[in-house]
Design goal:
heterotrimer, A alpha+beta (368), B mainly alpha (364), C alpha/beta (160), A: 368 residues, alpha+beta, Cytochrome-c3 Hydrogenase, chain B, three-stranded antiparallel sheet, C: alpha/beta, five-stranded mixed sheet
Chain lengths: 368, 364, 160
Amino acid sequence: MIERLDTVDMMVNMGPQHPSTHGVFRMVLTVDGERVVAAEPVIGYLHRGVEKLCENLTYRQIVPLFDRMDYLADYNNELGLALALEKLMGIQPPRRAEFIRTILCELTRINSHMMFYGSFGGDAGVTTPFIYAFRLREEVQQVLESVSGVRMMPNYIRVGGLKDDVPEDFRDRVARLLPRLREGIEECDSLLTRNEVLLARTRGLARISAAEAIAYGLSGPNLRACGLAEDVRRTEPYSIYSELDFDVPLGQNGDAWDRYCIRLEEMRQSARMVEQCLEKMPEGPVMAEMPKALRPPPGEVYVRAENPRGDFGVYLVSQGGDKPYRLKVRAPSFCNLMALERLLVGCYIADCVMVLGSLDIVLGEVDR
Amino acid sequence: MSWVLDLALRTVAVLGFLVFTVLFLIWLERKVLGRIQMRMGPMRTAPFGVLQSVADALKLVLKEGLRPDGADRWVYHLGPVVAVLPALMVWVTIPLAGGLVVQDMRLGVFYIVAISGVSVVGMVMAGWSSNNKYALLGAARTAAQMISYELPLVLALLGVVMLAQSLSLGDIVEQQSPWPYLLLQPLSFALFLIAGLAELARNPFDIYHADTEIVGGPFVEYSGIRWAMFFMAEYVNLFAISALAALLFLGGWKGPLLPDVVWLLTKTYAFVLFIIWLRATLPRLRIDQLMALAWRYLVPLAFANILVIAFYLYYQMPGWTLSLASLAMAGIALVPLYRHWSGRAPARTRTADRGGLPKVESRA
Amino acid sequence: MDVREPGDRQQALAAAVDKVLAQFHPQSEFIFDELVVSLPPQAVKAACQLARDDADLAFDYLRCLSVVDLGERRQVVYHLYSTRHRHKMVIKAALPADMPAIASVTSIWPGANWHEREARDLFGVTFEGHPKLTPLLLWEGFPGHPLLKSYPVSGLEDRG
């Protein structure tokens, strides 16, 4: 007790300008020496009022806004919106479109997890994984670019299907990409995963039990790291995921190391899914018969999709008309970030950025 | 008066050499790091970007030096000077070849240890006076890290000094023919290298810079020429530690065929490249792990090492016994260290099989 | 999403929910495959507690908390999920627009914390018993609640 009397807690404002907060994000840390006593995440620096904007745009105009929420998982976001409207309007997109969507979404997942991998290495203090990850991302990016013409914010997945069919050499490009991807993932794995220093830094770091993770509303790899097989693609399959053969990787301890490993494994699974999609992808149209104006009937719908960061939910309330009455997005990063307050307590200052990194957030989605 | 002139000339020559070396080292590091990371590194300034460091240095010199409000003026301004001077002064007694030295001191090793210990004061001054919390944390980390690792570093040097029975770097090099001390006492070498890395704050020990955590530590508020002084101090120290490793453990300038200077520089740059390689490979340790490494492993090991060397000298045993004992100790020390850090090989993720899940409703 | 009709499991769930929450007089209906239960606002917290603790329901996961501005009412919508049984339910409560207040569910699901703060920011709904109902997405002192239908989309910047 005597020693405790001498120490003075210090408040450290980490962010919003900080190299490792993964965006404009602030952590107000109360530290006792190097130990974090209390932490308060502060968000909202990137709040653009996307939900409000959506209420004043037609359904087709909303798609680009969805790209700008989780900008690392743009295709997945678009898919979420498309699923909501298709469910509400009773549209069945053509099979070919479903397969292409799945390929694009899984490639985006690899892209996003690669980003995580790179920045996680950076948080740990080594820059090489970042470059390795980006080299791999570049190859994925080129395939995605050949499809939609842009590198970010594709605006490609539309209600009822896709904007256009993929280019003729799409199948070849993806087929060529897959072995490179597998190789690259293994390379990244061997570069960082078993590194003793990384193990020392991440094992047992920011552990959270399954019960607590559920209570906090964690989802995606962060929840599966606790050993819970909660993957929307498996529990409530959408699109064609029920036809695909894939494993849901699970962690054991719910620590930062598990969260890291799961994302690595998910990339392998995504590559598997892309391969199956390539095999099964039929020819045919990519757009369903659609009315000229999107006017869903009055009603409401809540759909979920498994984004790279977790359970992405779209709650759409329609009162007829060509604009949504209310469009609420359940952003996985937003919910995952909530647990930070609890995870940081007891960590060292040095761990803060790693814990944050292990949650893998995208601020564009947190603040919307 | 001629000895004054002589000394002045030598000093200027060493300073010039160091400035050139720092510029070269920075370029080399960026280039090597780039190649390891499958990039080109600097390419735009002159062929292969060789003038990149010059351009950077010019930019830093011309840049406005800011002092934050509320910074302690004198301490803030003195900090970089106190940090850079010892780094340069050490070079008074580090020879580049037999006789190619400003002043070969009889107490050379002692002098180096004593002077280089002052650097930390400059860093702490910088961190304390900046009126910035990151800098303050960095200063605290600097003090803890530098002082903790001084101990194993000095003890490792002590092993060499005991064998050579001299504190002069020139004598120590002469003593190392035909067998360099690396073969005779690999443990001292390992200790020296680890502690040296920590003193240099290079990966995996770049804890007080930690640009992803405390954004540069003690130097966060510095800019322009003052920041460049810290930077220079770091690279001079990097070169000094590498040169010392070459001098103390690899037989210094001794080597066949090539001139002495070339041999020493080759060995020194081998270490420099090794350190750059580590930077590209290893993540950063945490402060508590760093301290545990020093006090739980390195310091006891260094003491044990000295005991073994004392036995060896007292009983005049053959050289290979010392090598073996040294290796064995290093091996024994590695086991708990490995356990401590990585534990048993962690299980990878397991996968959820399909069977355990409730049946999903079929498609409509 | 192809599942447009409630399946057998949802029907069974609806019966179970009706039984467990009977004391709150829930009105349940199906919207597509979602079981939507409307409750009076003052019953929401107790009902949520029951829905989480009851072994058959076990709604341990708050998926989403939304507010919909319906003019004279503000509807708070809770999307619940059970990781144990893998079923889902929606709870709705309509609050009067002039005094939108409802009991916080943070003590039941800590994950409701930011959702409720966001809802307060954007819709002005007060969550009683919330540990720290300060602005989350907006800055302190932001005038108005932007997601209300009465809040204009543009023209505010000019007013300074």
